[in-house]
Each structure stands twice: as structure tokens, then as C-alpha cells.
Amino acid sequence: MRADILDRLVTQAGEVSITRSRLENQMEVLKGALADFSDNLGRLRRQLREVEMQAESQIASRMSIAGEREFDPLEFDRFTRLQELTRMMAESVNDVASFHESLSRSIDGAGDELNAQSRMTRDLQRDLMRVRMVPFASLSERLFRVARQTAKETDKRVNLDIRGGAVEIDRSVLEQMAAPFEHLLRNAIVHGVEPRAVRAAAGKQETGELLVQVSQQGNEVVLQFSDDGAGLDLDRIRAKAATLGLVAPGVQLSDAEAAELVFQPGFSTADVLTELAGRGVGMDVVRAEAQALGGRVTIVTERGKGARFTIRLPLTLAVTQVVLVSSAGKTYALPSTLVEQVIQVRERELINANAANLIEVGDDVVPFHYLPALLGEGETFEPGLRSRPVLVMASGGERGALLVDEVLGNREVVIKNLGPQLARVPGIAGATVLGSGEIVLILNPLALSRHAGSVVQALVPSAPVVQQVPVHQPTVMVVDDSLTVRRVTQRLLEREGYRVVLAKDGLDALEQLPEVRPDLMLVDIEMPRMDGFDLVRHVRDDKATSATPIIMITSRTADKHRNYALGLGVNAYFGKPFQEPVLLGAIAGLLGREMPAA
User: Left, alpha or beta for 73 (phi > 0: left; psi -120 to 50: alpha)?
Assistant: First the structure.
């Protein structure tokens, strides 16, 4: 079947779905109007009954008076006509009520038919999606051919194993990622798998093992390309990065940071560029192609044991499940596969989380962002609500929390192509049209947060990719049983150039003191296992730490607690919540440092 005709059919089915959504909205409007109709009909019945009662009472009154004198037949006829009119009005009201009942049945029947049409539309879309889907095994022969050819040209022996080939994936996704898949295989053979002599010397089989593992997780297809070669040459990557100026001189990169450098545009450790490995496609293009499809790429490497590239791609590019949210008066859609849970967070906690860009979720602390801030439409939220919804996002090993104004619910939507102009904008996975006709962007908040971080770094003119550690960096130990308070204080101090060590209670601090000699300590009072008073007593009794300045920060602001703490040797005492400039000034004064310029 011709791919263009199939794509057109899918698009038309999507338009049918959008039209159905508009009809559903119109049905809701009709039901609302019918409810108002019913209310007005009830009010009209009550008013007519009141008119009838007033007419009856007036007639009875006139007849009682007529009993005392002669009754005028013309007057009697006039009151009889009033009764006739009220009866006619009552019949008209009953006719309107019958019309209301008939209209209500018709709307209910139309709603049932619309629901049936909705099910048929979903079945049609699902079947069309199945026609678009092809098994990953359809690419297998192409990958085997690439592996055989590359192994022959490099005089190496490799065994390619493809597992999960029956997993189906959208044809357009597979076609667009075919070239990056081939590049990953060539790289694994040329750079990863060692020559036979080297493998034999290392106690490995002469034949290198390549594994392509395909699996489906929700609405995503996960592909893992792994080998048992030497892994990435991280030392050579570090040296090349220093040569290209990607890292400041003398700065040591972690293994994870060094591995991420292979995705930098134009980055290569090869001394001589060849057509064999690369063929004009770099690792930056592999990641860019995956991100353009709404996917992502991660890497794990181990020296002497190989490397594993994990690619996560959407199952289809046509229809997806989203969570509709509202922020700053605008509506956005987030892929349901990214939303782990929705929690309600009190405003006071949100203010602290927004200041620290971190929030505590269960036993974990994850990055925190306000959605309009990620989009450049507002730095912070307007206060005034007791609590707000926060969406916990998860993708692979990456997690984050997103603050929105309102969660509007789940919806199955048809993804519309943004066109080549916006296809590679980070964090925008596509767009959709709601039943109201509103165009809504489908966002990936995790990608937006990564991009926001890189933009902030790029805006610093002289900032290297990795910051150099200052020659003298005072160490401050923060001792508090609240994880959020520890993280907020840590970010504040690190922003001012301090090195921060965290302890969850007094006993944890004492266990760290022999190895960590802080220049200053920030201590809470109420903590499990060992409170702040006992900790101060132990610190002052130890000759090695007796002169260490201690600032106590606590919610206990009574004079008796303050005097007791000062009697134990505390240098300063602050209540919660503390004023940041005052605390920083006290720390600078105790450490003999100048306050940074405002």
C-alpha cells in the first residue's frame, strides 16, 4: 500500500475524530440549554398555578358579594372567560412540557449514537494504525548486511543478535531512524569491538557480540544497542574535549559527563575521518533525529565491557493519549506516558520549591519547574490558592515535577505535524486541535527543562561547560531533618560560592565530622536520634571542632531556647523562616568573608 495514501487516510480519520469532538461540545451546549428550558418550564407552571388560585379567589369573593345583591350576568360571563384562559394556558404549558420531553429523548438518543460513532472512529483509527505499523524485523536484513559489510572491511568477527523483532513500530518512525540505527551498528563494530588479537589477549571470544533489544513500554518503543567491546575511550574523549575548548583547563569530567560529549555536534575522537564509521552522520544527528520524533537517547558505558545506547521512540506519530493542563490562561497537552502521578501541594511548600527549583516527592527530590517559566511566559505563579496541582514526570531514569494552574483531564488526540520550521524546536512534540477548535501544543516538559538549563549556560559569556572550583571554598554543614529545608539551604549557599555538606540529624553529623571538617555549621533543634542541643554540646566538647562557628536555625524562637543555645556556645540564633540576606551576612561575618555585592 502506498505510504502517502495511508497517511492521507490516517489524517482524514483524525479529522473525523476532531469533528466528532466538536459535535460532542455542541451536544453539551444543547444539554445545558435543555436544562435551562426545564427550569423555566417549572417556573412557568408555578406562576400559572398562582394565577389560577388568584382567579378562583376573586371569583369566590365576587359571588359572595353577589349573594347579598342581584348578580350581573355580564360580570359572571367575564369571570368565566378568565377561567377559560387559565385552562388554555395550562394546556399550552402541558404541550410545551411534552415538546421538552420529546426533545430530551432526541438529545439522549443523539448522545448514544455519538458515543457509538466515537467507538467506531477509535476502532477505525486503531486499525489504520495497525496498517501503518510494521515489525522491527522488517529492518533486520538491512542491519545484518551493514554488520557483515563493516566486519569484513575492518577484519573483525561479530555476531549480531536482534531480539524483539516482532515488536511493531510506526513505518515513518522506522524509516526516519533507519540511518541512525545503521550508524550505531557501524560505530559499535569500528570503535567498540576490539581487533581479534586484542580480544584474545583480554580473555574474550574473538567474535564480538552485538545485541539489539526491542521492547514496548506503554506508548513507547525502547531500543537498546549494546556490544561487549572496549566501551567508550573516556580518557581520549576528555582530551579531545579539552582540545576543542569544551571544558575548562584542569577540570575533571565525570564518566557520565564525558560520555555525553559524544553527542556534541562535530565531536569525534578519530584521527582520520573515514567513510566507514560515520558516513556523514554523527552521534549528534542520532540524538537530533530521535528528539525530532519525540524520543530521546541515553548512553551507559563500562571500560573493557562495552557500551549500551538506549533509544526511546513513540509507538506512533498519529494518535496519542495526553493530559490537558491550563497555565497562565493557556491550554497545553502533555503525553500521558510521561505523567507518573498528579499531587496537590500547598502553596507554602510551592514557594520554597520554586525558590530552590527542587521538590520532595516521596523519598526522592526532583527538579521543580513552573510551566510558564519554562516557556518564557512568567517566572512565578500568582499566590492566593491554598494548593495547586503538580505533575510528577518520569521518562527512563529522568524525573521532574511540573507546576500548573489546573489539570483538565485525559484526552486521546490526533497529533498534527508542526512543519519543518518548528519540527526541531526542543520540548515541542507536536500540536493538536480540540473539539472547540483551539490549537494546543503537545509539550515534553523534561526536554524543555534540559533546554532551559543549556540556554542559561549559553547566556553566560565566559562560562565554560564545566565550572572550575575556586581555590578557597569554605565548607558549610547543614544539619536539618527536613529534606526540603536542606536542599533549599544548599542551593542558597552554593549560589554564594560555599561548599555544602548535608546531614539529616545530629548523629549523622557526628558520623561525618571526622572526615568532613566544616568551616561553619547550620543546625536545627528538633531532630530524631540526636537533637541540635546535644550536637552543639558534642561539637564544643571535641577539641578538633570546638572553635567551629555554629548558627542555629529553628522554629523555636522563645527566649529560653535562645538563651540555652547561646549558653552552649552557639554563635548566632535565627528563627524560621530566615531572611536570606541576614543569614548570609552572619555566615560571612563568622567566616571573615566580604558579603557579595547585591
Answer: alpha
